[in-house]
């Protein structure tokens, strides 16, 4: 399998600028790749501004950014492509052609089995929660530990993931705290970054992993 | 319109037991109602335990609780009912027959236009986000103010609601902080409880409201 993925928890850390905390990993990851990167900005409403942010950042790293939302296709075609063709095409190019895929936050969510373990409100309806499936498990980016001093009674991330695992046949969920990222190369997976990650498995105790951990065993949690 | 609704932000406050903070409002609300209350426990996986919690609590207030999940219908029928018949039937009984409806947290979400402004992860796929529509606006229960000391970079509730309002034709969203609830009687709506609420409107500044505020104008935010 040719797959090469860099799945980042979050684009911006509390102290730092856009993609600054994973700049080194991005440079290592895209090294020797041709100089053009395709950017998918659909997570935000203002796609022009978001594309400019990404374009400016990647320019400082030596890459040109093309955004799918700037293609000459009419809006309808882009919308259809977004739901069907784009997902299939991304999957094909990443898994068969070995084109490197980097996601951060929402881009990490959509690379997994499903978007059931994204955070916050489902403010836009999607006809399916199925995702691109570049890895055979789910990820919860921006994973957050409960604040012991909080008086808020809403469910914690851990409680929601446990509820997710109350459903049958749900894959394990890798909780990537902010500052954390997963590098996947073929069948090897390594935890990178400055924070630890947590692995939530259905019916099993949650396990913590330090940066540098080999998480290649996750490939056996097959679909 | 006969509608009578009590829409509570949350079932349990940090200090206190299940439904304790809104006990008085529940007693005022169900006063003179027949002694049986129909409980819909589908928000949690363990419906027996959740029903027992509600049943025990309402017993101390003088009410018997029937849970829809205990009906003799087979599972499939209940599942279908949950999605179609139950919603239609609840809507009919509340709006036409004047049966009082009380919701808390998820029960508040499903009483509104849609569940787009529920919190946290969409851990279970639903074929529609449309809700029962007992009021012509949305509610965000457990509404939470940003913590100025937090270093977490995930979106705040306010940011998500603003993203919701980037979509066309989205209704206003009443943010009910924990401890807050909305009493709707016919065309009158009053904010009750111990915390303030925030009203998010598309293209307009957010407005805060004190407990006791008359929010009857929300009925004019018609679809």
Automatic annotation (TrEMBL), chains A, B:
Keyword Hydrolase: yes
Gene Ontology BP term (one): proteolysis
GO molecular function: serine-type peptidase activity
Keyword Protease tagged: yes
A Pfam entry, by short name: Peptidase_S51
Family: Belongs to the peptidase S51 family.
Name the UniProt record assigns to this protein: Alpha-aspartyl dipeptidase-like
Species name: Sinocyclocheilus anshuiensis
């Amino acid at each position: 399998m040719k797959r090469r993925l860099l799945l980042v928890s979050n684009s911006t850390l509390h102290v730092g600028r856009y993609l600054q905390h994973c700049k080194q990993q991005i440079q290592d990851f895209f090294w020797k790749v041709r100089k053009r990167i395709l950017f998918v900005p659909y997570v935000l409403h203002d796609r022009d501004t978001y594309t400019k942010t990404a374009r400016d950042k990647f320019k400082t790293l030596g890459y040109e950014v093309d955004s799918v939302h700037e293609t000459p296709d009419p809006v309808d075609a882009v919308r259809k492509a977004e739901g069907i063709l784009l997902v299939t095409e991304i999957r094909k190019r990443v898994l068969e052609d070995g084109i490197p895929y980097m996601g951060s936050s929402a881009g990490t969510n959509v690379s997994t089995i499903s978007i059931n373990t994204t955070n916050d409100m489902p403010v836009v309806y999607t006809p399916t929660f199925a995702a691109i499936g570049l890895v055979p498990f789910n990820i919860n980016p921006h994973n957050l530990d409960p604040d012991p001093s909080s008086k808020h009674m809403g469910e914690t991330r851990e409680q929601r993931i446990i509820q997710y695992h109350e459903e049958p046949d749900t894959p394990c969920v890798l909780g990537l705290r902010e500052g954390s990222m997963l590098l996947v190369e073929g069948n090897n997976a390594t935890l990178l970054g400055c924070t630890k990650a947590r692995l939530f498995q259905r019916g099993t105790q949650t396990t913590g992993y330090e940066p540098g951990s080999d998480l290649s065993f996750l490939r056996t949690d097959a679909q």
